[in-house]
Amino acid sequence: MKTHVEVRETAQNILNTAEALAFVDAPGNGAGALFVGVVRDLNQGRKVKGVSYDVFAPLAEQNFAEICAEASQKWGEQLRLFVVHGKGRLDVGGISIVIAAGSPHRGEAFAACRYVIEEIKSRSPVWKQEHYMDGDSEWVKGHALCGHD
């Protein structure tokens, strides 16, 4: 398994799909799957202007690596995975996360890519504050990182 996991400051680094696909490419891979998370303009009936992501990078990168290792156990050591999550402010249309999976066959690539995004959404130390067109801002309810209520 070959992986690249990273948290990038969005102000200095645009998340790049070409970089992701190049990383997961390999002579034995016949498939590459790509997930791109983008800031949308409407959430739960409220018009969104932008989003700020707060990420504790060392813990997040460790968590991303663990998730990638789990995917490799499920879909094979030949799997190549690329995960980069943005940190900072993004306007509507901005790319917040790029995930790519390369594998000899499309089924494994799609399944691994889906697994990685779903696990990141439910387990990773990433917090999102939405900024609305009416001037209000609100932290989006996420998940607890520990078992306490």
Care to give the gist of this entry?
With 149 residues, the chain is α+β, with helices and mostly antiparallel strands. The protein has helices spanning 17-24, 57-75, 106-123, and strands at 2-9, 31-38, 42-43, 46-55, 80-91, 95-103, 126-132, 137-139.
Label this structure with key terms.
8 strands, alpha+beta, transferase, Mopterin_biosynth_MoaE, eight-stranded mixed β-sheet, Aldehyde Oxidoreductase, domain 3, 149 residues
Percent in strands = 35-45%
Report the CATH architecture.
Answer: Alpha-Beta Complex
Largest sheet: 8 strands, mixed
Number of domains: 1
Q: Which series of helices and strands comes N to C?
A: EHEEEHEEHEE
Mean model confidence by pLDDT? 93
CATH topology: Aldehyde Oxidoreductase, domain 3
Q: What's the CATH superfamily, by name?
A: Molybdopterin biosynthesis MoaE subunit
Please bin the fraction of helical residues: 25-40%
Radius of gyration: 16 Å
Terminal Cα span: 36 Å
InterPro entries: MoaE_sf, Mopterin_biosynth_MoaE
Organism: hydrothermal vent metagenome
GO molecular function, one term: molybdopterin synthase activity
Protein name: Molybdopterin synthase catalytic subunit MoaE
Topology summary:
Elements: E1 2-9, H1 17-24, E2 31-38, E3 42-43, E4 46-55, H2 57-75, E5 80-91, E6 95-103, H3 106-123, E7 126-132, E8 137-139
Parallel strand pairs: 1-5
Antiparallel strand pairs: 2-6, 3-4, 4-5, 4-7, 5-6, 7-8
Pfam families: MoaE
EC number: 2.8.1.12
Protein name: Molybdopterin synthase catalytic subunit MoaE
